[in-house]
Specification:
Blueprint lengths: L17 E5 L5 H13 L3 E5 L2 H9 L4 E3 L1
Parallel strand pairs: 1-2, 2-3
């Protein structure tokens, strides 16, 4: 499922893998979604060149695929 806003689906649970993608790592909707997903599930991967998204996930020990 592709979500193009900051609100994640209600059915998202602890076993759901979420892939966050933002080239700059500063896209507001992706950063909002990152905060929500970190509160709801630990299964998250970021694809980015860095920015706040890469820093935030790396600081929490989550995988970051840097472009």
């Amino acid at each position: 499922m592709i979500v193009r806003g900051g609100a994640l689906p209600a059915w998202l649970g602890p076993q759901t893998l979420v892939v966050l993608s933002s080239y700059s790592g500063e896209t507001e909707e992706v950063l909002t979604a990152a905060g929500e997903v970190l509160a709801r599930t630990g299964r998250v991967l970021a694809i980015t060149t860095g920015g706040s998204l890469g820093d935030r996930l790396a600081a929490r020990g989550r995988p970051v695929l840097r472009l």
